[in-house]
Queue: 2 jobs
Job 1
Amino acid sequence: MTNDTTIFDKIISKEIPAVIVFEDEFVLGFKDINPQAPIHVLFIPKVRIATLNDVNEGNVDYVAKLHLAAGKYAKEIGEHENGYRVVMNCNANGGQTVFHIHMHFLAGRQLTWPPG
Ligand code: 5GP
């Protein structure tokens, strides 16, 4: 259910391990456990927002912070010129499986379009 806590809460609290590549006051970035590209990182807000449908005037800054984090990370790892993709999936048709919003950051290969 979308109101339940998720595995990502446990990654934020460091109860379960993850390969963390970015962290600030608002955002955590860690490697996806099932990478779809040579570089596949998930950027998540440190507060739980279940889906993109739950973004509102009060929490939208977190979404901006995800973009800021992704851009900083791309520069840090030197992939900003080659390029990368950020994706957020919403609910069943979007392919969302973890109900704590997350920005997929994919880089390191030529990505195709449209996605499947
Ligand atoms: P979604 O399908 O919801 O857009 O993406 C969820 C992502 O979380 C998937 O790419 C999946 O591989 C990743 N994931 C699920 N559980 C874990 C976990 O315990 N650790 C890490 N690092 N990634 C996870």
Job 2
Amino acid sequence: MKNILITGAAGQIGSELTVALRHRYGDSNVIACGHKTKPDATLLESGPFASLDIRDFSALATIVEKQKIDTIFHLAGILSAVAEKNPQMAWDINMTGLTNVLETARTCGCAVFFPSSIGAFGPSTPPDNTPQLTIQRPQSIYGITKLTGELLCDYYFQKFGVDTRGLRFPGLISSETKPGGGTTDYAVEIFYAAVKCEKYSCFLKRGTRLDMMYMRDALRATISLMEADPARLTSRNAFNVTAMSFAPEDLFAEIKKIIPNFTMTYEVDPLRQAIADSWPNKMDDSEAARQWGWQPEYDLPAMTREMISTLSRRMENDGGK
Ligand code: AKB
């Protein structure tokens, strides 16, 4: 990787991945692209930024050709809950975006990273220790775009030799940029309420167990997979990766160990609950461990401690806001 392009760079993963890749590969060698979401100052000041609608094929191809890009991290996309409210838009952005990236990669010789998700599974998938290769009949439009994306990435590798690689991310928990409309967002929102000593109303019901991961682990997983020796990879795309699995009440109990006065109620959102109910409880990520050495560093207590200390410090610096 010498010249890198990141689409969706202002989003939850992109804003932190851009900074991590700039540290590793040099500020000027990592071009951040975004469309609607306003990038924050760190992103704009630490290296090049281009405004790009990922549905615009020629704009994408021009940047890739002019900047001699060799690797594209394609993070632009619509998350599950927002997608379900506007399926046509979600299909357009998620699929037109990915086909534009793959076609550009094919003609310009780039490697591609594609983030799939636990959303690529469905209610008929085995919910516990979900294998990497298993039944996938997702019922949300988000899941359908993720599963199609996994297959399309495999197709471009097998048919055209494009070096596509990808992970199935669980819910991602981070303290920098908030996620924009996912089903697992409660696991981020809850921390903002807790550090402000506000009551939190959870939109998923008790007992809804889902895979989760702290952003630092997600960044490590992404970079490790892209740097992995291709000779060790027997699969390329759709690696299950997870770090912890919990239900809302488990996270609440962990936060209460540090903030004993914190309170939480439940006000279930039927749309997001139905999506969550169709996703696995816990994936088996042993293939990622075996093929490229994946190992999470943050479990539930470690992630909770770091989220609370980071957000509390920021709140103090911002004068309690
Ligand atoms: C979402 O909830 O939509 C995402 C995901 C698990 O893919 N966080």
